[in-house]
UniProtKB/TrEMBL annotation:
It comes from the Bacteria. It comes from Aquifex aeolicus. Pfam families: TsaE. Belongs to the TsaE family. It is found in: Cytoplasm. One of its GO terms (molecular function) is metal ion binding. One of its GO terms (cellular component) is cytoplasm. One of its GO terms (biological process) is tRNA threonylcarbamoyladenosine modification. This is tRNA threonylcarbamoyladenosine biosynthesis protein TsaE. Keywords: ATP-binding, Cytoplasm, Magnesium, Metal-binding, Nucleotide-binding, tRNA processing. InterPro entries: P-loop_NTPase, T6A_TsaE.
Length: 132
C-alpha cells in the first residue's frame, strides 16, 4: 500500500485514504517507537470514520482498550505497551481493531500493518502493508 514520508497533514491524508478502504472488520497493527505517531494516526483515522459526537481518541496505554462508535461501526483501540498478553478474541472481526505496539503480540493476525519511523521533528516515515 506504499511508503511515505509525511508531516501531520500528510499523515491525516493517509488516514483519510485508508478510512475509505475499510469495510469495518479489519485488524490494523501499528508498529513503531514511542512518539512516532501511532495514536495520532488512530485519531485521524477515527475522525475520518465519522465518530459519534463527543468522541475523544486518546492513548489507551492505561485502559488497554478504548471503544469508539463510528459510521463504519465500532472501532476498538488497544495498546500493548504495558499489557502484552491481551486476549483479542472477542474483538477480532466484530469491528475495526487497531492495536498500537502490535509487534509485542506475535499471535495477533493483522489485515493491515502500518510501520512508523521518526524522520525528524515533524516528519515520519509510514509504511502501509496489506496482508493476506
Ligand atoms: N508527521 C508526524 N506524524 C505523526 N506525529 C507527528 C508528526 N509530526 C509531529 N508529530 C507529533 O509527534 C507526536 C506523536 O505522538 P503519538 O501519536 O502519541 O505517538 P505514539 O502513539 O506512536 O507514541 C505527537 O505529539 C504529534 O503531534
Ligand atoms: Mg500511542
Amino acid at each position: 500500500m506504499g511508503e511515505y514520508v509525511v508531516d501531520l497533514k500528510g499523515l491525516k491524508g493517509l488516514a483519510q485514504n485508508l478510512a475509505k478502504q475499510l469495510k469495518g472488520n479489519e485488524v490494523i497493527a501499528l508498529i513503531g517507537d514511542l512518539g512516532t505517531g501511532k495514536t495520532t494516526f488512530t485519531k485521524f483515522l477515527v475522525e475520518a470514520l465519522k465518530p459519534e459526537e463527543g468522541t475523544v481518541v486518546r492513548s489507551p496505554t492505561f485502559a488497554v482498550l478504548n471503544e469508539y462508535k463510528t459510521k463504519k461501526g465500532t472501532v476498538y483501540h488497544a495498546d500493548l505497551y504495558r499489557v502484552k498478553n491481551f486476549d483479542f478474541t472477542d474483538y477480532v472481526g466484530s469491528g475495526i481493531l487497531i492495536v498500537e505496539w502490535a509487534d509485542l503480540d506475535p499471535s495477533l493476525d493483522a489485515d493491515i500493518v502500518i510501520r512508523f519511523q521518526y524522520e525528524g521533528d515533524n516528519l515520519r516515515r509510514i509504511k502501509l502493508e496489506k496482508k493476506s
